[in-house]
Amino acid sequence: MSIDFDKAIGVHGEALRLRAERTKILAGNIANESTPGYQARDIDFSASLNQAIAQDAADGGLLLDTDGAETGYRVPYHPSLDGNTVELGAEQAAFSQNTSDFQTSLTFINMKLRGLAKAIAGQ
């Protein structure tokens, strides 16, 4: 009998992929903080995950296409005169929260895999 790891870890594996893609986008925003005219981008994580869950019911498998993840432009709280919409504090906060959420999903996966290892070992 084989183990289906997609079913075992649930949505967390795909959530990690989406969070990794969001990390790249947020890091790009931070790197371009002083680039005139740069438009800050972001992924709406919950909308992307909800869309993937809805597709899961129709397709029979949860597959997030993180390469084609829908990115939107962030609306600045205080627009700059040079057209750059990156606000360093907001980007750092979003990056930090995304990192924390990534670690939470990774912890859930580790717990699931430890449980599977114990079940396989007969403990």
Task: Report what the structure shows.
This protein is 60% helix and 5% strand. Strands 1-2 form a two-stranded antiparallel ribbon. The protein has helices at 5-9, 12-31, 45-59, 88-121, and strands at residues 41-43, 71-73. The chain has one domain. The two termini are 18 Å apart.
Q: Helix share of residues?
A: 55-70%
What is the number of helical segments per DSSP (H or I, 4+ residues)?
Answer: 4
Evaluate the radius of gyration.
18 Å
Following the backbone from N to C, one meets helices and strands in this order, namely HHEHEH
Give the domain tally: 1
Shape: elongated
Q: Characterize the largest beta sheet: strand count, sense, and whether it forms a barrel.
A: 2 strands, antiparallel
Structural class: mainly alpha
Total E-strand runs: 2
Distinctive features:
single chain, 123 residues, mainly alpha, two-stranded antiparallel ribbon, 4 helices, 2 strands
